[in-house]
Structures are given as structure tokens and as C-alpha cells.
Amino acid sequence: EGKLIIFSVLSAKAIRDYIYTFVSRTNTCGELRSAHVGQKVTLYGWVQYQRQGLFLVLRDFHGLTQVIIPQDEVSATKELLSNAPVESVVRVTGTVSPRPLGQQNPKMPTGDIEVKAETAEILNSCKKLPFEIKDFIKKSEALRMQYRYLDLRSSRLQANLRLRSGVVMRMREYLCNLHGEGLLAGAKEFLVPSREAGKFYSLPQSPQQFKQLLMIGGLDRYFQVARCYRDEGSRPDRQPEFTQIDIEMSFVDQAGIQRLIEGLLQHSWPEDRGSIVTPFPSMTYEEALAEYGTDKPDTRFGMKIVDISDVLRGSNIHFVQNALSYPHGSIRAICIPQGMVSDARTSSLLTKFLGEKKQSELIQALNMQEDDVVLLAAGEHKQCSALGALRLLSADLLEAAGLTLRDPTAFHFLWVVDFPLFLPKAENPTELESAHHPFTAPHPSDASLLYSDPTKVRSQHYDLVLNGNEVGGGSIRIHSAEQQRFVLEKVLKEDSEVLSHLIEALEFGAPPHGGIALGLDRLISLIVDAPSIRDVIAFPKSFRGRDLMGNAPDYVTPEELEPYHIQVSWPLEEKEAKKN
Amino acid sequence: EGKLIIFSVLSAKAIRDYIYTFVSRTNTCGELRSAHVGQKVTLYGWVQYQRQGLFLVLRDFHGLTQVIIPQDEVSATKELLSNAPVESVVRVTGTVSPRPLGQQNPKMPTGDIEVKAETAEILNSCKKLPFEIKDFIKKSEALRMQYRYLDLRSSRLQANLRLRSGVVMRMREYLCNLHGEGLLAGAKEFLVPSREAGKFYSLPQSPQQFKQLLMIGGLDRYFQVARCYRDEGSRPDRQPEFTQIDIEMSFVDQAGIQRLIEGLLQHSWPEDRGSIVTPFPSMTYEEALAEYGTDKPDTRFGMKIVDISDVLRGSNIHFVQNALSYPHGSIRAICIPQGMVSDARTSSLLTKFLGEKKQSELIQALNMQEDDVVLLAAGEHKQCSALGALRLLSADLLEAAGLTLRDPTAFHFLWVVDFPLFLPKAENPTELESAHHPFTAPHPSDASLLYSDPTKVRSQHYDLVLNGNEVGGGSIRIHSAEQQRFVLEKVLKEDSEVLSHLIEALEFGAPPHGGIALGLDRLISLIVDAPSIRDVIAFPKSFRGRDLMGNAPDYVTPEELEPYHIQVSWPLEEKEAKKN
Q1: Could you tell me which residue ranges the Aminoacyl-transfer RNA synthetases class-II family profile domain spans (chains A, B) (predicted)?
Q2: ipTM of the complex
């Protein structure tokens, strides 16, 4: 309730009107205090629980209130309230009274009072529940999803969605400018058959192309809380339908976008989650890979990767010599402070082969302490994804062992910049693909390299990382038609015909422009420390992309498919199964 | 610009930061006044037009500024600005100067000043345009759609989208509460093939079921600016993708929802469109049909339908007698004030057959004046759709003839209530279908009729009508599982299995609840008096549901369809065509 007012731009009076007018309750279940004692009130809510016909706890979206059931024999109200099943919806009218001395509950905002029921009405009775609605009750994901509307009654989920709403509203306040329309774009989209035989729409994977066209349309600023759709098959903690804060601006540079996002997050940050410091630190893609072995470093703790090639170069250890003999060969290490607590073995082959001098050099290079553990990786690597993964794994082990490395209340934002513009294709390293998307502009100082050695070109792409999670990404876009055509045809060897409308648009006076998109679901789940983004979405799909409540996706009849000129091509075995 | 500040909740300072920081311009093209004279400024914008190398007009999202091109021979700036093609994007740095006496342009906000260019840069040159970007230039719908990003540069479309953004932001301010997630629901949806053979998702036609489940989930209040999808094939001025302000509340009644919407519209109404008076007038469905021959009456003008059966009953005119001989037979009429101006014929068969007395009764009943024209409809009708259509047609004719009946600046909101809950099916009048949707609750005073004579049951559905257009509709929902099951199975004879999850949800303590949805596109187009909703959507589809710019829907390869286990079933002739 408090948060609602904080986040709202309405006067307190307007808030009251909004919550109490339009409905016949006098108060919410979260509101009554000693100051209300003596008042006649009408509450609506759910029966949280009921004890021996003496009292019950009434719950609504705003809180809990204890209701005393009248005990006189003839009372219909007693009869009614004593027999109301848990989670039934009731109206209770009564008088606010102070709780008897010693029976106050300081943990409960309404714990000083109780409502002596006079009249009551069952608005809807509840049948036996598939599970108890208490946060601590364990229930299967599938069951929770099937009865999502019951799970939504848990205080945890309600708090998550309330916070999400508040944050988004504050973001809108900050960005309130042109409300663009979000639309079809991107690749890997869901297909939507049209009534024209053989023709399909696609669902927006992101409004990328359209927000660029808005800038070309002279709209200067665009932001949207955009619903996007991505078909990734079965991927844990991904949603076929997700939400992003989508932003595009004209006449802007990378620093401009970064300052905007920092201001946006500061403005919309929940008060009770502490404040965040801006500007956010920045790190190049190369640094990130070298020091953390990943392009989304968790900077809440150290254990950085150190190159100890020079220390060991002299030593005559076979695997070291072997590794260093390669052009990009090196020896990298991470030092795990107090690593012993998670690993009993104290022996180290390495020391056997190292002289005193080398050993102390090593200790210095890694700033080793008593009980530390050092992990080495020897080989031909520019990146250190292996040590990067080990670093995170070690952190988990240490925390499992009782140490705290990562303060759960700390929020470490980080910009990762200077990504390569192109990467060699996994299947055929001689060919190049865009590191992000083909509309990303090259780094100004690398522009000429685009024509000579594209592999060396850095991009004007930037990622926003929070506690080791990518929560946003964007770029300054190519606004020159020739450059865009060169990238598509000459570098990526793609058929630019598909994007001809965008390239043509660039020829009609496209302003320099850039933008960014924040993954709202991920961001909110990190703020509330939820294990899954499904905990911050009202009606998520299961990790297999299923809606277990409405049972989607579902079979449709051939008749329903007719207007769309499509038919199902059943895998053979299914055909057989259907036959028998 | 002014509107942006009005609508924003940010301080003026924050607004300035938002518009000027992040980019390197010092001012927008709509901002400079005499007070700025002498200041050195940097503007970014498009070349609106350029005259004889003397001056040009620079345009951005915020306005127009006149730029004087330096005339000294050696100036590179002169060279550059004189040759910049129209609609090229340029940066101009120069000094604000007063315009010479007599050359001020009072019609132009920046008309008192001009900017003497010192340096300039072409950020992007523009090739020959497919059409001139001026509101008064006529261009085909198809061409405008194909180059939507150019059409968006027109001041009219930019104003429309700016107003839309402002209104929506004000609506959010008013409603800011729980930001629910909007999802799959409804019938007649677009289908989305999934990777499971034969299984399809459907796109949300409206979040109807899910917002009800949110209430059952105890979330109390929900609103969303929801993107919805409806496959209506080719229908003029409809969009396969549209936007609605979607609202649901618990413990609310019809009056509560109506007051909320009146407050919402008053709060978000654009200042320069005058104020609107609340509460809105209300009319029953029966009255609307009897007096206006439609369930969405345009109440900006009179010409109501009058039943003159009793006046003519005595007369021995054959078609009158004939009509009145039927059970529901009646004679209805509308009187068109000054109808003569649109209809030269002054004769009237009727007068021949009517005596003096009847004639004067008729004149009195219809309050006829000199030059009025009366149209009659005789027959067996409860409704009067024919006269309703004639009423609107007559209004068009009169206005075409120069009279004003409907003030284009007037906004007449009207609630239409007490709709029937069920209607006889067109194809088989003995069967019933929902007048709106099967979740609509019966009118409290008709609840018992539901079991005895469903055809007589009025519903708790309400429509919001603006100037003869339906801009919203909603209802109090059924919250009793038994009642919902009875309606589906016994009245509608539908298979309730499809909705079993909703019915089951009602059994778990569903609160009394109701809601409404406003058609945002239609509402905004009426406010800005746009001929089509396509004028208030950034990237609309054509009236045939096509995206002429991105060329959607488009063909996809059988390979692309494989993961979705579908194939195109080509109509024969197309198969043939493909063969040759």
C-alpha cells in the first residue's frame, strides 16, 4: 500500500478514492490501527484461516485482519463464519476493537486491533484446495502452474508483481515521451499463418527494425514496454513471451544512452532496495574475458584470473612448457581465498617442481594467503571460459561451506563495451557473423578496418550486466545505407533483399541513432532475488513453453486450420499412434 | 513540447535534461525565441526546404527554425547547405539573430528569429523522395504505407502520436496500480504453431479470461495497456493488431466501473480539446434502439425516431393498416429539420390520405416545422435499424448541403446499459448465443429468469459510446461456478470442457468482479478527428492486414515450417500457377 503511494503520481486523496470508491468496502485488510478503534468497518477478503469458531484471519491484497466471531447462540453470523471454508470470499461488517492486553501481534501491521464481526456474508465459497496457500508450503512447479491463480494469492508473488508494477511506472515517469508502437521484427520468430495461402506473419522478437524506422520517421525519442516473442524451444528460465524496456534515440552517442539508463534505473529503483551509485563502472569485452572468463562478469567478488605464464616460463614442468610452446599459449590461474574449506586435499604437485624463488613469485603474483587454493589452466586460449566457470563454481562451493562472497543485497551494475563487431561462425570459422545484429555500428576508431580487416573491428554495442547477469544490451546503429549494405553483402555474405526496406529507409535522411533494451523480467527477478523469472510474471509458461492452466499449446481441428491453408504434417510414429 | 511537459510527471529541469543531455544539440528546432538572440546554438534536423542558397528551414520533432546560409564566397558551409538535398539530416551551429523588420512570421513559433549558420555538417544525405512530406500533398494509401517512416515525418501524424502518448501516460498515472501481464484468451484468435506436432498457441484476442483469473488470484485491481490480436480477415479500418486499455476490479459493481472510467477520461483528456462533463448520461439498450435505431447512438443531434402508430391508426391507408395488423406492427418516423434543402420534392402522398385533424396531430407528434421532411417506416419491428441508418444518412446529406448538425469539437459520451444477456442465433433463432461473452453476469433483478426464460434476462454489460462510436465495453462477471456452468451447458449448449479451468477457478473462492476495456486506437482517432485508426498507430497494417513496408505476411520455405510440423495446403489453382 505504502509502495503504491510512493510510486503513484496521484494525491493521497486520489489514492483513497481509487481504492475505496467504486467498491463498497470501508477499509482494506492491511489498514486498521489503534486509531480506528470504535469505528464501524466493512471488509472484503479471503478466509486465511479460522479457529474453533472463535476468530478468523481475513486477507486481501493489502494485508491481514483478525476478525472475532460473535459467540451468542442465536447468531447467524457465528454459524456462517464458523463454517466458511478456508479461502472463501466473505464480507464482514463489525467494529474495530483493541486486542486484549498481551494478545497484540507486533509482527502484524494490524496486530493491535481486531474486528468484532456483527454481520457477514459469504460472497463465494471455496472448495477443497489442491495445496495450502502458504509461502513455506512446498508444491510442485507443475501444480503451481496449473493453479497459477491460487499461487498468485501468496504474499511473495503478490509482492513481486506489486514491485514490478511500481518499477515500471517509475520508468514510464522517467521516460514519458513518445509512446511508439511495438511491432514485428527480427529472426527466429514465431510464425502466424495468414488467410493468404502460404503467407505468414511473424511475431516481434524485438521491435528493432521498427524503432529504427521511427527514428528515420523523425520521432526523435521512442520508448515502449514491449511484449516480445522468441521461439527458443525448451530452455530453462526462458519465456516464449517476455517483456523489455525498449528505447531508441536520435542524435545520441553511446555515452548518452548509458547516462539515460543510469538515470532511469536510479529513478525507478525501489526505495527499500537501497540506492544505486552512478555512473556504472565500465569494462571492455577483452578485459572481461581475460579477468573473469566471461562477457558478463559478476563483480561482487574478486578471484580474478591472472596470467602467470611469465612466472612459470622458466620452470621445466612438461604441461607448462607444452602449453607455452603454442602461439597463444599461456598459463592462467585463479586464487580461491580459504579454498581449503571446500577442498580437504592440501597437497600440490606443482610445488614439487617449483623452486623456492618461483614459489614466492607465484605467491606474490596471486597474492596467496594461508589456506588459499589456486586453480591453473594451461593451454592455447585468448579467453578463459573454463576458469571463468570454475570461478563461479568455487564461489558456490565456498558459500555452501558457509562463507559469504556475494552480498545478496548488493547490486553491482557494469557496462561491458567494445565487443567485436563480427565473430567467426562456429560451423565455419572462415565465415563471419554479427556478434549481435547486423545493424550495429562499428567503433568510430575502427571504421576503416571494416573494409580491410573486419575481424579486428570493435562495435558500438554495449551490454548492461547486473551481478553477473546480462540485463540489457544496445548499440549505436549504422545510419549510412552504403555501410549497411557493405556489412550485409560483403562481410556477412547475406542476401540484403530481405532487409531492402530498411536499407532504402537509410537513404532517405536517416539520423544518427542508437538505443537499448532492458530485459524487464530478468531485472525484476534480480531485484526481488527470485529464483526464476516465472516468479515475476503473472501468467508464465512452463519451462517447456506450456500454459499448464489453459493447456496451451493445444490441438486444433483441420477445419480450424482450413482458413489458413495449412495442415499438420504428423511425424510417422504419431501418425501410427493415431491410427490405432 | 508544451504538451510533453504538461503530460510528464518530471520537473521542467528533468525534462530539459531528458531532451538535451544524451545528445549534443543545444536547442530543439521549436524552441528559439527573441530571448535567445545573440546565443550560439547547435541544432540537428531535416532540411524542410532550401531557397536559392540564401536560407533553409530546419525541422525536427519539436518544430521549425529558419537558418541563414552564409554568403561569403569561400564558405564551405554555404557550399554544403546550398547543395543539401531536401530531407537530408544536418547539424547547424550558428548565432540566433532577430529577423529583419517586416520579415517576422507570426504563424511560426520561432518566427521572430533566424539562425545565422557558421558551421554545418551533413549527417546523412537524402535521395529523391517518393512523395513530398507535406500534409496537403495527396498520396495513395499504399504509397504512404510503403514509406510509413516518411509519412511519420508529417506534422499531423507526429501530433497524433504525441497526443496518444500523452493521453496514455495520463491514463497510467490515474490507474497506476498493479501492472498485470496480458495473455492468451478468447476465440477467433490468430494461431501460432508450436514445435509440438499438431499443437498451436493462440494470440490474445483480449486478456478476458486472464484478468478474471488475476482477480481470483486476489490481485484486487488490474489494468494494462494490452496489445490484442484479432483475425477478422479484410475489414476496413480494423487492425489485426490493436491496443486496449484493459481494466478489472474485485468487489465492484457496474456504477463503480462507470465512475472509474469517467474519472480516467477526465484525468487523461487533452487540455486543448476542452473539458468533458461527468457523470456521462446513460441509456438502456431498448431506449437506444427505439429512439435511435442503433445500440451506439450519436447523441450530438436530435432527429429521434417517434412511434406515430396511434396517430395513423384510424386512417385508411393500406400500407399503414397492413403494418399495424401484425403483433409487433408499428409506424415509426423521423423528422428531418430543413430536410427540404437536401430534397427538392415537396409533394407528399401521405397528406392526400390524411384529414386536417390527423395532419395537425402528426405535425404536433413530430414537432414539424416549415421545410422539414418526415421519413416513415411501417412494418413489424421492435428495432428501427432502417430509420437509424436513414437518420445518419440524412445528417450527412444535410451537412453536405452546408448545415451543421454535429459540432466536430463536441464529445458526447454515453453509457448504453441493460443489454440482453442472450440473443437468438441468426442462423437458427431457436438457439441462443451470448450477446457479448459467456462470462457476463445477469442483471440482479433478472437472475431468476435465467432458469425460466433466458431470452428475457438483461445483462450487467455496459458499452461506452462516443459520438456514435463504441469506444469501450465491459461487464460484471459471473463469479458463481454453478451459474457459469448453467449458462455454458444449459443455455448456450456449449461444451464447457474448453473452459473447465476457468469454471474450476470460480470454485476456489472467486471474488465478485467486473471490468471494462477501452479501444485506445478508436478513442484517440476520435479525439484527434482522424479519418482512420491507422492515423494514430505508428506502423499499422493496411486494410487487408498487410504490412506494405516490411511486406508481411510473406512466404516462408518448407524448411522454415518443418520445426512446426505444418505444411501449406495450396488451393489447386495456385498449385497450377506454381507449376507453370
Answers
A1: 221-540
A2: 0.82
